[in-house]
Specification:
Blueprint lengths: L13 H16 L6 E2 L8 E2 L9 E9 L3 H7 L4 H16 L4 E11 L4 H17 L3 E9 L9 E12 L14 E6 L8 H8 L9 E2 L4 E2 H5 L7 H9 L3 E6 L4 H5 L8 E5 L8 H10 L3 H7 L4 E7 L4 H10 L5 E8 L4 E3 L1
Helix pairs in contact: 1-4, 3-4, 5-9
Length: 343
């Protein structure tokens, strides 16, 4: 007699998926506001756009992931931090065009679903969404045996925000003579983990033991959630005094700053004008990482770049200080090609 095959015997446990949904529902609902119609579990998330909140709204969207930081999180079973990483990263990405976040959707994929780990990841998403005033309106959990190894998972998300048409930041107004400010990161954020893991996570190295140089464990240093800059910068964007913003993610200084430089504008960044965090010094030293590679792969302690008129620099920095956000004068805009020199 031919043996019957079920979906579960093929590697997909629908019951575990339902358990994951049951565990995460409470977290997701904490992010809901008056604009949400319906509940978790529908085929699509319903969001009622508040037409009175904007005069001429422009929707801004972005999709991203967390990269191989997930492997560090999985190694110490600390899942909620990468959920926060994903939301904060995406909020920053639309922030650079002036947008306020509206709602967020996630995609969680794994080879064998662990309802507890999945729900903990979603808890992190909910924490960050609530902090940023963003609704976690829906998502997808996919169990795909054979595509992922046991214990492996991936996480991605899509964000939608809005900005007034006359407040969209494009960088077109940047001019030679403008000043470049840097806002500090708290660590690697979500980029450079393939390099960091290759350098730091050698055989026998403990992720959980306190590292004397860092003053904390490698897990603590590497898994600090991606910093979000929306609360401090959105009020300043509305003043019209910010020329451009650049989120220092993959590509670091060399690839991200030029994205907001118009033709004829060149960025000069002063090395040593901000504190470089110990985790970056450790990676560079132990890996013998070339300087240009470091500044192109890692944020080196600066998570967001703010370009302002010289006349507005002091006022912007004073406003950031009042908001308890440190800032550093890290460079200037000069005439030249849309590229970066580190001096």
């Amino acid at each position: 007699m031919k043996k019957s095959v079920t979906y579960r015997s093929a590697g997909v446990n629908i019951d575990e998926g339902q358990e994951a949904v049951r565990r995460m529902k409470g977290y997701v609902r904490t992010t809901f506001n008056k604009n949400v119609l319906g509940d978790l579990g529908s085929f699509g998330g319903l969001f009622k756009f508040d037409k009175n909140a904007f005069k001429k709204p422009v929707l801004v969207s972005s999709t991203d992931g967390v990269g191989t930081k997930i492997l560090v999180a999985a190694a110490v079973k600390r899942y909620h931090t990468v959920g926060q990483d994903l939301v904060n990263h995406c909020v920053n990405d639309i922030l650079v065009q002036g947008a306020k976040p509206l709602f967020f959707l996630d995609y969680y994929a794994t080879g064998k679903l662990d309802a507890k780990a999945c729900a903990e990841t979603v808890r992190g998403l909910a924490i960050a969404c609530k902090q940023q005033g963003c609704v976690l309106i829906g998502g997808e959990t996919a169990e795909m045996p054979g595509l992922y190894q046991p214990g492996d998972f991936d996480l991605a998300g899509t964000i939608v925000g809005a900005v007034e048409e006359d407040q969209v930041l494009t960088g077109e107004g940047v001019k030679p003579g403008d000043q470049i400010l840097g806002l500090p990161s708290v660590g690697l954020h979500t980029n450079g983990f393939s390099l960091a893991r290759k350098v730091l996570l050698r055989r026998g190295v403990s992720l959980t033991k306190t590292d004397k140089e860092l003053g904390e464990s490698l897990a603590d240093a590497l898994l600090k959630p991606h910093r979000c800059y929306a609360k401090e910068l959105l009020p300043l964007i509305k003043t019209g005094k910010i020329r451009a913003l650049a989120h220092l993610t993959g590509g670091g200084f060399y690839d991200n700053i030029p994205r907001v430089l118009p033709e004829g504008c060149h960025a000069v960044v002063y090395r040593g004008s901000w504190p470089v965090l110990p985790i970056f010094k450790k990676i560079v030293r132990e890996g013998g990482v070339p300087e240009k590679d470091a500044y192109r792969t890692l944020n080196m302690g600066i998570g967001m770049v703010v370009i302002v008129r010289e006349a507005d620099q002091a006022g912007i920095q004073a406003a950031l200080k009042r908001a308890k956000m440190p800032s550093y004068l890290i460079g200037r805009v000069t005439k030249g090609p849309a590229s970066v020199d580190m001096v």
